[in-house]
Specification:
Length: 334
C-alpha cells in the first residue's frame, strides 16, 4: 500500500513538472494571469503529451504483466513476444491497401496482426521445451526480427520505408490534441484486466488447475492475450515503438511485490507511467531545445536492465533454473 501511494505521488509531481518543460514558455504565473498563448500551448500540446505518456506507460506495463502471468515466464512481453513487430506489420498493411485509412482502422489492423503474431509465439514456446527460461526471450527477439524483416521487405517493395519509419521510432513530439485520443482505450482495457486478474492468475497455474476450479483455460488465455494485443496496438499506432517497457517494469515490480497479479497490477501500472515519464523528461533535457525520441532513452535504460535480469537468471543455481523451466513448460502445455 505504501509503495502504491509513493508511486502515485511521484507520478503527480513529475506530471505537473512535465507540463512546464518544453521549447515554448509556459509558466504558472502566465496561466493564472490568463495568457491565451500559454493556455493554448498547455491544452493543445503539453496536457495531451502528458496523458499519452501516462497511457503508454500503463498500457505497455500491464500488457507485459498479463503476458508474463498467462505464460508463467518473466521474459515474455510485447517486445520479446513479437507483439509490437506484428502491430507494425498491421499498420503497414493498412497503409498499403487502405491509403485513406483513419487512425482507428489502422489500429484495427494492428490489433489483428498483433494478436496473430502473439498467438504464434505463445504456441511455439508451449510446444518447444526450453532448458533455460532465458531462451524464451531470445527466441522471441529472433521471432520479432523475422517479422520486422518481412515488414521491411514489404515496405521496400511498395516504397513505404519513409512512412513506416514513423512507427518504428517511438516519440511523443508529434502528440497534439486530436491526434492521440485513441490511447484512451488503454483505460477501459486496464480496468477489464483488473476485473479478470484472478482468472489470469488461475490460468497461469496450468490447464488442469484451471479445470478443477471451473475456469475455461483456452477462453481466458485467448481473452488475456487479446487485451495485451489491443493495449499494444493502441499505443504503437499513436506513439510508435517503445521497447522493453512491458518487460522490465513487471519484472522489477514483482521482484518486490510477488507474483499475485491482483496485488501487483496497480503498482505495475503506476511504475510504468513513472518510468516512461522519467525517460521522456531525460530525452527533452539532454539536448534542449531539441529532444531525443523516447525509444532511444527507453531502449538504453531498458537494455541495461534487461542484461542485468539475464545475468541474475543465469547466476541462479542451475537446478533451480531447470526446475522453474520445467514448471513453466508444464504449465504452458497443460
Amino acid at each position: 500500500m505504501h509503495s502504491t501511494i509513493i508511486l502515485a505521488l511521484l507520478l503527480i509531481i513529475l506530471g505537473i513538472f512535465s507540463l512546464f518543460v518544453g521549447v515554448l514558455d509556459v509558466q504558472i504565473e502566465g496561466i493564472l494571469k490568463g495568457d491565451t498563448q500559454q493556455i493554448h500551448t498547455l491544452l493543445a500540446s503539453r496536457l495531451p503529451r502528458l496523458l499519452a505518456i501516462v497511457c503508454t506507460g500503463v498500457g505497455l506495463s500491464v500488457a507485459g504483466l498479463i503476458m508474463q502471468q498467462l505464460c508463467m515466464n518473466k521474459f515474455v512481453s510485447p517486445t520479446t513476444g513479437g507483439t509490437i513487430a506484428s502491430a507494425q506489420l498491421g499498420i503497414l498493411i493498412a497503409l498499403i491497401f487502405m491509403p485513406d485509412s483513419t487512425l482507428y482502422s489502422r489500429a484495427f489492423f494492428a490489433f489483428l496482426t498483433a494478436m496473430v503474431g502473439t498467438w504464434i509465439y505463445v504456441a511455439f514456446i508451449q510446444t518447444i521445451k526450453f532448458k533455460d527460461t532465458v531462451m524464451v526471450a531470445l527466441v522471441g527477439i529472433m521471432f520479432s526480427y523475422v517479422i520486422g524483416g518481412i515488414t521491411n521487405f514489404i515496405a521496400f517493395k511498395y516504397d513505404m520505408v519513409q512512412v513506416l519509419s514513423t512507427w518504428l521510432t517511438g516519440s511523443f513530439s508529434l502528440i497534439l490534441r486530436g491526434r492521440y485520443e485513441i490511447v484512451y482505450m488503454v483505460v477501459p482495457l486496464v480496468f477489464v484486466a483488473f476485473l479478470f486478474a484472478n482468472h489470469f492468475n488461475i490460468v497461469g497455474m496450468g490447464r488442469d488447475f484451471s479445470k478443477n476450479l471451473g475456469v475455461p483455460y483456452n477462453v481466458v488465455l485467448f481473452f488475456g492475450l487479446s487485451i495485451a494485443s489491443m493495449l499494444t496496438a493502441c499505443i504503437v499506432v499513436v506513439v510508435g515503438t517503445i521497447s522493453y517497457i512491458g518487460l522490465i517494469v513487471p519484472n522489477l515490480v514483482t521482484m518486490f511485490k510477488g507474483d499475485k497479479l491482483q496485488g501487483t497490477l496497480l503498482d505495475t501500472a503506476l511504475f510504468g507511467a513513472v518510468f516512461v515519464l522519467i525517460c521522456d523528461l531525460i530525452g527533452r533535457a539532454l539536448i534542449s531545445p531539441y529532444e531525443l525520441p523516447i525509444e532511444l532513452i527507453a531502449g538504453i535504460v531498458g537494455s541495461a536492465i534487461f542484461i542485468g535480469l539475464l545475468i541474475f537468471k543465469l547466476k541462479t543455481p542451475r537446478k533451480r533454473v531447470r526446475l522453474a523451466a520445467g514448471k513453466t513448460q508444464e504449465s504452458c502445455q497443460k
